[in-house]
Amino acid sequence: MILFLASRPVTAPPVRPAAPVRSTRRVRPVCPARRVRPPGFRFLAPYRRLFSVPGTRAFTAANLLARLPMGMLSVSAVLMIAATRGSYALAGAVTATGLAATALVGPLTARLIDRHGQACIAVPATVFAVLGSLSLLLCIRCHAPTWTLFASYAATATTPNTGGMSRARWAHLFRDDPAARHTANSFEQAADELCFMLGPVLATFLCTALFPEAGTLVAAACFLTGVLLFAAQRRTEPPIAARAPGHSGSRARSRTPLRLPGLPPLLLTFLATGAIFGSLEVVTVAYADDHGARSAAGAMLALQAAGSCAAGLLYGLLPPTTGPAHHLRRFRRCVGAMAALMLLPLLAARTGSLTALTCALLLAGMATAPTMVTGMGLIQSRTPAARLNEGMTLSVTALLAGIATGSAAGGYAVDYAVPAAAAALACVLALLTTRPPR
């Protein structure tokens, strides 16, 4: 027995774990560390959400490159023709011809884009428009007859609506998210204001610092490159609506947006809004020239566009509308605010102070982008998806026609009462003609 016990290995007795000591202090679970964003950047969360979707950054950057020449081409053409032919009247007539041709051909180009896709139509249309700009340049360099200038610039009418194509992509990507579409439309309007603010400044610098044709060359190169890059982003391109005979979608496809209920009154309001832009630009240049500060007119108009750009970005942070009636009510309020703020330049001009007028233009511009964003949202809500590009191009056509009319009226009267009257007309049209759709 002793030998048996001696042969067993000696092991320590098992130690029972001690009972846990209960504490009255509450222990919080350990969570992974979160990156705390500065408070000043939290308001950008809706815009970060937009560009977190794959492909959105690529097509937005390409579209901005293609959209910047929209504010350069007309100014470059005016400076190029005036420098070589010595006539601003001829330059204005040539650009007016191109504007009228774009108003006629633009909706047809957009209809083809809706039917056959953005990449299929936008690229050849852009190539044809760029060839028209280069033809204008060659006609000026070779001292061709005057009628060739009109024919060449009229060929640029096939220019596709790059802003409308970008909005169509946002509408497709966030078709089930009204808040994201609202933010995207606000961003697009701010981008429009930014391009039309920087485009004329860049065109003027190129045409005066280098040579008269430099603005047209750079604008044509940027336009063609931007559209090619934009068309290459196929995964975000809206699909082509299928044609089904006897289906309501096919009937909507064959029906022009001009016959859609509620759309013509909106286009009339856009026409009056375009008259504000056209007359405001001409009257500001004339007013600054009359006070011996013509070079300051560009900076004054740039501040007006900057106010609109900032207001557009801030407007995108507001919650979207909850229904058609609420959306229409907000549009009327925005148009009313634009009409009220457009009285500020009229009052400031009476003081004779350029500083006061510049501040008034900055404040007046803050109502522009919210009005355009809400109006474009109404256009999208009342236009079938199969005709979305055509519907938005019709709104741009109405704006262009209004700009031409406002420019003529502003040049004739040379008074800030013209844009104020146009804003009042837009407000009356929005209140009396627009109705919620049934």
Automatic annotation (TrEMBL):
UniProt entry keywords in alphabetical sequence? Membrane, Transmembrane, Transmembrane helix
Report if keyword Iron is assigned: no
Instruction: Indicate yes or no for the key word Transmembrane.
Output: yes
**Classification via SUPFAM superfamilies:** MFS general substrate transporter (SSF103473)
InterPro entries in the record: MFS, MFS_trans_sf
Listed GO molecular functions?
Answer: transmembrane transporter activity
Q: Please name one Pfam family that this protein belongs to.
A: MFS_1
User: Which chain regions cross the lipid bilayer?
Assistant: 58-81, 88-109, 121-140, 217-233, 263-287, 299-318, 330-348, 354-379, 391-410, 416-434
The identity of this protein, by name, is: MFS transporter
Organism in which the protein naturally occurs: Streptomyces gilvosporeus
